[in-house]
Amino acid sequence: MSERRTVGVGLVGLGTIGTGVAKVIQQNAAVIEQRLGVPLRLVRIADLDLETDRGVDLSGIRFDSDTPGLISDPEVDIVIELVGGYDFARDLILKAIDAGKHVVTANKALLALHGKQIFDAALKRGVDVAFEASVGGGIPILRSLREGFAANRILSLHGIMNGTTNYVLTEMEKTGELFDVVLKRAQDLGYAEADPTFDVDGIDAAHKLTLLAAMAYGAAITFEEIPTEGIRALTPFDFEAADEFGYRIKLLGIAKGHGRDAERIEARVHPTLVSKGSLLANVDGAMNAVAVTGDAVGRTLSYGAGAGEMPTASAVVGDLIELAREVLRESSGRVAPLSYLPEELVPKPIVPLDELYGRAYLRFTMLDRPGVFGHIASVLGENEIGIESVIQKGRGGSFDSVPVLMQTYPSKESALRSALEIIDGLEDVTAPTVHIRVEEDL
User: For residue 173, what pLDDT is reported?
Assistant: First the structure.
């Protein structure tokens, strides 16, 4: 091991998470040194805002806006990227790699889009890129997949991976309020961004699922390939029906392997009905959880805060300590960043949604006229879709629409889609049918 006296860290981006990183390094300096063997020292910080008081002691730390200087500083062994976004962050990381620095990032969107370029550059230069904070905040799910489950074939992975949407769904269920009302409250409380698109449309979860699918199945995919649906279409009726049918609604990221060597994979993000008795059904508020089932280990659940200053900082500093050990050993690449060796990460086809088979929840909006529901039931029957339960909410009339809530028996999704295309074209059906899949593999 090297005779170094310290390992130096440079932080780019002193926002909420960056401030948390500085706090953790300072507050837990003694225990970090006891575990690492030498002090982990934050030597430089780069940020455009040099005036705001972050409530953290920056004495002894060079603090300026000189990112290139930070990267080239010989005292900086590890560079942390916490600026977010795409182009600037990618250039920063690639320049740090080229300078021979290890890198820590929480930027799941960047890795989901440009991960191959970044990991290939790090491998060629002989440095590591760590990114535990990019999925699940303080939950060490990536380290679990990379090392703890390394002996397993992963059979399935189900994750509640976005705290904003989980908070909104929990509140809609609890209060009976509309989506827009709950979202506004989430924004006021700081759980949702001013522009919540990435969260409520499922894009953030798809970014994270891209990384998890690579680590679970060696699948080189991009998030654009993942079928993704958000939560905007949900109403209080859907939560009432889910409760009566014995379920709760969660936005899940789901991955499964098809074939012994996962020649094809399922990878999808969408609102899902999960049984009230399942572990994931009871993950509420802004919390995250990922259930992983392995052929040897069986079913596991990782649960915790998926965002926030200190939980995310915990994951970032955990990565720092891991890379600091590499610095002390003057080595890299102890474990492949995406679990599989680079040459084993290959493009894999994603199973089309039409091939899925299972129960479904449907919400029809239709005029309350004699024969309308019979026509809908006839179309479903012609497509071999059985009706398990039906609830009509209220009474309408010839000119008033009512919601009719239905649970189907298991069927092939291609057949269900064909039926819904016909049903949504009926004169007395006044809005597109809402379709939520039921996930029973939990």
Answer: 97
Rounded mean pLDDT, 222-248: 96
Burial degree of 386 (CB within 10 A; 0-12, 13-18, 19+): exposed
> Under a CB-based contact definition with an 8 Å cutoff, are residues 308 and 275 in contact?
no
Indicate the pLDDT class of residue 442, thresholds 50, 70 and 90.
confident
Cβ-defined contacts of 66-73 (< 8 Å, 24+): 67/12, 67/92, 68/95, 69/44, 70/10, 70/12, 70/44, 70/45, 70/46, 71/10, 71/95, 71/96, 71/99, 71/101, 72/99, 73/8, 73/10, 73/43, 73/44
Calculate mean pLDDT across residues 136-150.
94
Give the N- to C-terminal CA distance of the chain in Å, as an integer. 45
Counting residues of the chain whose pLDDT is more than 90, the rounded percentage is: 90
| Superfamily covering domain 7-138+309-344 | NAD(P)-binding Rossmann-like Domain (3.40.50.720)
Please give, one letter per residue, the 3-state secondary structure of 403-420: EEEEEECCEEHHHHHHHH
- Among residues 120, 88, 122, the alpha carbon closest in space to that of 102 is found at 122
How far is 92 from 25, CA to CA, in rounded Å?
A: 22
CATH 3.30.70.260 fits 355-439, yes or no: yes
Contact 397, 368 (CB under 8 A): yes
Output the pTM of the full model: 0.93
Mark whether 393 is an active-site residue. no
* Tens digit of each residue's pLDDT (9 = 90 or more) over 54-83: 999 999 999 999 999 999 999 999 999 999
Question: Is 400 or 72 the better-scoring residue by pLDDT?
Answer: 72
Domain ranges in the chain are 7-138+309-344, 143-304, 355-439
Q: Which element (helix H / strand E) includes 63?
A: strand 62-64
**DSSP letter, residue 358:** E
Summarize pLDDT for 159-188 with one digit per residue, the tens.
999 999 999 999 999 999 999 999 999 999
Catalytic one of 23, 101, 208, 250: 208
